Amino acid sequence: CLAITSGMYEVALVLGVEKMTDLSSDSITEALMTAASEEERAAGLSFVGLYALLAQKYCHDFKVSTEVLSQVAIKNHFHASLNAKAHFPFEISRSAVLQSPMVADPLHLLDCSPISDGAAAVVLASEKFAKKLRRKHIFITGSAQATDTVSLSQRASLTSLLATKQAKQTAFNMAAVECSDVDFLEVHDCFTIAELLALEDLGFYPQGESWTAMSNGEVRLGGKKPVNLSGGLKACGHPVGATGVKQIVEVFNQLKQRAGQRQTRQARVGLTHNVGGSGGSSVVHILQV
């Protein structure tokens, strides 16, 4: 985006690619943990362990049952069942989530995104160049990245990701939008707790209350603010290097009314939110017709 807005280039092809399934799960876990702090790696933590700590703190502080996390997985699998390109294109039940193996308390296997292969691509162009094509274009009106400490032990809060809050505010200011203007979202749900944190840090729900939206249908297809219509990382898949671009593709298809069975009724402003590691970095984009 910056290279184009600066005038350095007029058109750019952006690719996101990841091939993960050639390695064992242990090897992949070890490789991914290079994005964590040295002290966390030395302690034997993996990312599911780090997010389990966030989930424990969230449920403790806000007096929420850990079972509410299953509602995130159920909702995202429903959306994925309408997505032919999803890694897991099928629905799951509450009992299936709660009876799946415990990976890191309170996160069960079905609270976790899968190891996926995937690729996605978008073409970015300057407004001047795009006008030559005489097509209906989608505009990136806000784009921001923010960072925080990599180690959880150095953060002021374990129930909020500061990088997400900062990236959101910058992107919203750039796009001149508020939460009420956003029609749907694709957020980083590597584990079910991550979606709850994202919805609160992005300003759509007060702290400790986003879980209520999972049971009342607000964030489901047909609800007032659908979230992760692709199925999210949880069910569409999480090929790490492709995930951020894949989110852009999903929002683009929704804004162009090309999403098929999972098309949301109101699609004029969409948001993507991606996270690095356990919140050491965060990126937010606003796309509009």
What does this protein structure show overall?
This protein is an alpha+beta fold. It has one domain: 3-Layer(aba) Sandwich (Peroxisomal Thiolase, Chain A, domain 1). The protein is built from twelve helices and eight strands. The chain has a four-stranded mixed beta sheet with strand order 5-8-7-6, with helices on both faces. A hairpin with a 2-residue loop joins strand 2 and strand 3. Helix 5 packs across helix 9. The model has no long low-confidence stretch (mean pLDDT 97).
- The strand order across the widest sheet is 5-8-7-6
- Biggest β-sheet, characterized? 4 strands, mixed
- The arrangement of helices and strands along the chain is HEHHHHHEEEHEHEHHHHEE
- Unreliable spans: none
Mean pLDDT: 97
Helix content: 25-40%
Q: What is the CATH superfamily label? A: Thiolase/Chalcone synthase
Radius of gyration: 18 Å
Instruction: Give the termini distance in whole angstroms.
Output: 17 Å
Give the percentage of residues in beta strands. Answer: 15-25%
Under CATH at level 1, the class stands as: Alpha Beta
Which class best fits the helix and strand makeup?
A: alpha+beta
Let me know the number of strands: 8
Supply the number of structural domains. 1
Annotated CATH topology: Peroxisomal Thiolase, Chain A, domain 1
The CATH architecture category equals: 3-Layer(aba) Sandwich
Oligomer: single chain
Shape call: globular
Number of H/I helices:
12
